[in-house]
Structure formats: C-alpha cells, structure tokens
Design brief:
By secondary structure, the chain is α/β, with parallel strands linked by helices. Helix content is 37%, strand content 26%. The protein starts with a strand and ends with a helix. It is found in: Cell membrane.
Length: 246
C-alpha cells in the first residue's frame, strides 16, 4: 500500500505549551483513520498541522513522497489536494448552496461555471442536498449545513478529506444524518482522517484508530484492537469514561 501522508517527528508549541510531542504516523491511500482522545489531547491541532492551518514547530509532513514543509514546496498546490470539514460549517452566508460548492472550484481550480456546477450537483446528490441548491445557509438546519460543507470539500476533488469533529456543533437529532453521509463516503475508497468523539461511528468506519493523550499517540491499531483489546492503561481509562457516559 502506498503512503499518501507520512508525518515524522512532528511537534507543535504555542509559546511554552507543547501541544504535539514527536508525532509519527502514516496514512495509506484509501485508508479511513479516526483520531480519538480527550479534549486538549492535540487531535484537532494535529489535523490543523496536516493542512497547515497551523505551522508545525518541527518535523516533516510528507505528501506523495515530498516534504511539504520544505522551503521551496508549493503550498497552495498541496492545499488543493486536501478537503477540510470543520466543526462550524464555515459556509458563505451570502451565497446559496450551489454557489458555496462552485466558488472554490472556479477561483482556485479555474474550472468553468458549467463544469463547476455539474460537479457540485453530483456531490450535493451524494450527500442528499441536491434539492436545496437555491437555499441560503440561514434556511438550513445544522445537519444540512454540514452536509453542504462536505459536498463543497468533495467538489474540489481532494486526495484526502480531513474532518475536525464534524458533529460536535450539531443538535443530537442531526448527528445521525452527517455520520451516515460520512459512512457512505468511507465505503467509496476516499482517504479520510477524522477527529471524532463518536465512538460507535469510529468503531464502524475505521481501518485504523489513533488514540491521542497529552500530545502523543498513546496507542493505535484496528478498531478491534482499540475498542475491544486496548493495551494501554490510559486508552482503557478513556474508553471506560466515554462509553460509560454513552
């Protein structure tokens, strides 16, 4: 299997606070990797370092064999290969659903309006939002907004999709529709890295689960390894705490 992303000795500090401490992990093409852990464990910071919304303090991020942190690397080009879905949707409120899904294609990928529209509608159909092409974000529920955000990211044809706790801002009754959309995507062979606190979902979709604690990868393995046979005491403690709440 080919590694699409390799992270080597990655560190990230905010002032004196070292949030990521020597992270080493690789993701193969077509793999679905979920990252779990307590708040403050460094999960979202790791994701934001992968797409360079945060600049790592040290280490390497290797994409298709090239270190994207090298001085001469084409960062804008790299960013076009990554799709990002945030907690808070980040849709443009002054644009309708279709425009939200075409504007990036037209400005960044230089696609024609017709081609961008065709691709956007295909992806809106995938997430069940095609009937809402003319709606503004203010007319949508949280779950609908998040499905539009997923369609928008997919419309850029990313090699890797990053999800940063995509259900954490949703009302409980809307979580299911977003998780179903992501489960469907996971079966298409798309490479996905997902920070989530939805344990049942992580167990169902993951090829690999990474448990982070205090800025390090404390344990990683298959869903079976982590959820059924965890080795580390802190993994067991975390799962016991989370699953007893559920």
């Amino acid at each position: 299997m080919t590694n699409i992303i390799e992270i080597e000795h990655l560190k990230k500090s905010f002032g004196e606070n070292e949030v990521l401490k020597d992270i080493n992990v690789s993701v193969t093409k077509g793999e679905v990797v979920t990252i779990i852990g307590s708040s403050g464990s460094g999960k979202s910071t790791l994701l934001r370092c992968i797409n360079l919304l945060e600049k790592p303090t040290d280490g390497k991020i290797i994409y298709n064999g090239e270190n994207v942190l090298a001085a001469d690397y084409n960062l804008p080009q790299y960013r076009t290969h990554l799709g990002m879905v945030f907690q808070q949707f980040n849709l443009f409120n002054n644009m309708n659903v279709l425009e939200n899904c075409t504007s990036g294609q037209i400005t960044v990928l230089k696609r024609s309006k017709e081609e961008a529209k065709k691709i956007a509608i295909e992806n809106l159909e995938k997430v069940g939002m095609a009937p809402f092409v003319d709606a503004k974000p203010s007319q949508l529920s949280g779950g609908q907004k998040q499905r539009v955000a997923i369609a928008r990211a997919l419309s850029m044809n990313p090699d890797v999709m990053l999800f940063d706790e995509p259900t954490s801002a949703l009302d409980p009754e809307m979580v299911g529709e977003v998780l179903k959309t992501m489960k469907d995507l996971a079966h298409t062979g798309l490479t996905m890295i997902i920070v989530t606190h939805e344990m049942e979902f992580a167990r169902e979709v993951s090829d690999r689960v990474i448990f982070m604690d205090k800025g390090v990868i404390a344990e990683e393995g298959t869903a079976e390894d982590i959820f059924v046979h965890p080795k580390e005491a802190r993994t067991k403690e975390f799962l016991h705490r989370i699953l007893s709440k559920e």
